[in-house]
Task: structure prediction
Amino acid sequence: MIINHPLLGPRDAQEFVYLGDASLIDRPDVNAETALEDFHDYLYLRDNPAGSHKELWFHEQGDRAWLVVTRDMTTHEITDVELASDYAKRRGRDR
Amino acid sequence: MSEHLLTPLTALGRDSPVTKTIGGITICENPDLAIASLTVRQGRDQQLQTVLTSILGGSLSGPGRAIFSNSTTAIWTGVDQWFLMAPLSEHPDYAAEIKNIVKDSASVTEQTDGWVIFDLKGDNLIPFLERICNLNSKTLVAGDATRCLIEHLGCLIICRESGRNFTIVGPRSSASSLHHTLVTAALSVA
Result:
């Protein structure tokens, strides 16, 4: 599998480590009244779609960037790759 | 002050650097490079670029690239991170020297003794590179520099001349293993 790194171009998947669902970026507010429930859902509940899925990959043997990779779970086709920092900022995070 | 009769050893554990020529490929250990890592602090990019112009003669390199200027080489190693290299004999305390230039615009760490450096020269290194790493080595041009796997080791590969002159920077604690890998690959294409 080849991952098209947004900064470095196509790189072998051997250089990357998979972390998990990109929803891990959306960490709940620890001070919210519903924090206990929010963190339960954040930790234990995952969508498991047969199709397009956003996931976090780490370029461990390269530039050590975190990427959000959009991959089809049924065909392994990668349709989009972006830096996790860009993805997080778009979702309102400061970094 | 007492006089220390200590002999510095190279990364391969000898008192002089090892050079091997196999077929048309020369693998040369280079112990004379000081290395410092540089990480820009948040929002200080412009300030860092300005102060470094004095030693680099230009801006720091972008992703996957290196710049060679005067005696200093700057290699992009990650987002907002670089390795700076210069001759060790002229810069014995390199990290402190760089820190003195960049002040609080960037964080600097000494890297000199953490790495082994092999200079590779030959008329055609492409078949050799194809055996040691999965980079698209045919497309590498002078100034390309990237980190990738050689065997199990994360190494920096710097292209100085397309297909003919490369530098490999690998972990010093695995210097002999890396050297063995390079020699084996050179023998297989010789």
User: Anything to note?
Assistant: The interface with chain A takes residues 63-64, 76-79, 134, 136, 146-149, 154 of chain B (CB under 8 Å).
